[in-house]
UniProtKB/TrEMBL annotation:
<dbReference type="GO" id="GO:0003677">
    <property type="term" value="F:DNA binding"/>
</dbReference>
<dbReference type="InterPro" id="IPR058532">
    <property type="entry name" value="YjbR/MT2646/Rv2570-like"/>
</dbReference>
<dbReference type="Pfam" id="PF04237">
    <property type="entry name" value="YjbR"/>
</dbReference>
<dbReference type="InterPro" id="IPR038056">
    <property type="entry name" value="YjbR-like_sf"/>
</dbReference>
<keyword id="KW-0238">DNA-binding</keyword>
<protein>
    <submittedName>
        <fullName>MmcQ/YjbR family DNA-binding protein</fullName>
    </submittedName>
</protein>
C-alpha cells in the first residue's frame, strides 16, 4: 500500500491544518478531530487496503448503494456515518473521486476557521 498510502497522505496533508498521527497502529489524519484513517490489508477481515473516513449525513448510504464493491460500512465507526473505501484496483480516474471523498471527510469535521481557509484557496 506504500504508493497508494503515500498518495492518500499527500491528499490529506494538503488540506489546511491537517496533521498525521498514528491511531490504533495505523496512519490517521486530523484537523482538530480525525477525518481519515488508512487501514492495511487484513484488518478486520478486509483482505484489501482501505481507508475509513468521516462523511456528511446520508453519504454513507448513498456511496454504498452507488458502488458496494468500492464502499462499505466500517466496523467501529460505521454507526457514526463513516465510510470505508477500498484502495485496491484504483484507476487514475478514481483518484478524483477519492480526493473529493477525502475533502468531504475533512469538511465533515474541520473547524470553521480551517474550512474558511480551504474555501479561500478556491
Amino acid at each position: 500500500m506504500t504508493g497508494v498510502g503515500d498518495r492518500v497522505r499527500s491528499i490529506c496533508l494538503a488540506l489546511p491544518g491537517a496533521a498525521e498521527k498514528t491511531s490504533h497502529g495505523s496512519p490517521a489524519f486530523f484537523a482538530g478531530k480525525q477525518f481519515v484513517m488508512l487501514r492495511h490489508q487484513g484488518h478486520h477481515d478486509h483482505d484489501f487496503p482501505h481507508l475509513w473516513c468521516a462523511a456528511p449525513a446520508g453519504a454513507q448510504e448513498e456511496l454504498i448503494a452507488s458502488d458496494p464493491e468500492r464502499y462499505f460500512r466500517p466496523p467501529y465507526d460505521g454507526h457514526r456515518g463513516w465510510i470505508g473505501v477500498r484502495l485496491d484496483g484504483l484507476q487514475e480516474d478514481d483518484w478524483t473521486e477519492l480526493t473529493e471523498t477525502i475533502e468531504e471527510a475533512y469538511r465533515a469535521i474541520a473547524p470553521a476557521k480551517l474550512l474558511a481557509e480551504l474555501d479561500a484557496r478556491g
